[in-house]
Amino acid sequence: QSALTQPASVSGSPGQSITVSCTETSSDVGDYNYVSWYQHHPGKTPKLIIYDVSHRPSGVSNRFSGSQSGNTASLTISGLQAEDEADYYCSSYTTISLWVFGTGTKVTVL
Amino acid sequence: QVQLQESGPGLVEPSQTLSLTCTVSGGSISSGGYYWSWVRRHPGKGLEWVGYIYYTGTTYYNPSLKRRLTISVDTSKNHFSLNLTSLTAADTAVYYCARVGASGMITFDVWGQGTMVTVSS
After folding, report:
1. Is A36 an interface residue toward B (CB < 8 Å)?
2. B96 and A103: CB-CB below 8 Å?
């Protein structure tokens, strides 16, 4: 069972901003660190879009941004585009269970 | 740039052992600086970290799989491998190999395409 809970789905219209949350739900995995976000189009290779909570790798659109407040990390996609329709996962390094991933969120562009 | 490619059987019988290999191109595993990882995604579910290995052979495993799992590395062939024993239907998943930074960018920054593994008789 994942220790990081995400909403099953989030949707928005083109041009809008949406936010995907990632909440730490288990206290038995130790401290959470190094939150990352990945975009996954089915059948394709997962793509890193945010690391260390809010850092974007080179080449990733600045429409993607990350933040964290307390035990919840968030991914915001601004100026939503059709190509953003995909599954999104968060991950975190924990001091006991090492790496954990979120449950995944399907982003739909209406 | 670095690319990863998984290979292995698509169908394995229950109670048998799964063997997968991830071949690294565009970079050398023995250069260090990265852990080489396996991640899986069960049908209709989220991602699960399986484990990873450093080029020196040091391994770290998901506690839930540790008893059945072995990850090894062959630096001469620039690939690393997964062996998972005593398979059940619960091991049916897409298996990805991925690279994880050991410092600096501590994240899964390069992924393979993934290979579907079905456990069934």
Report:
1. yes
2. no
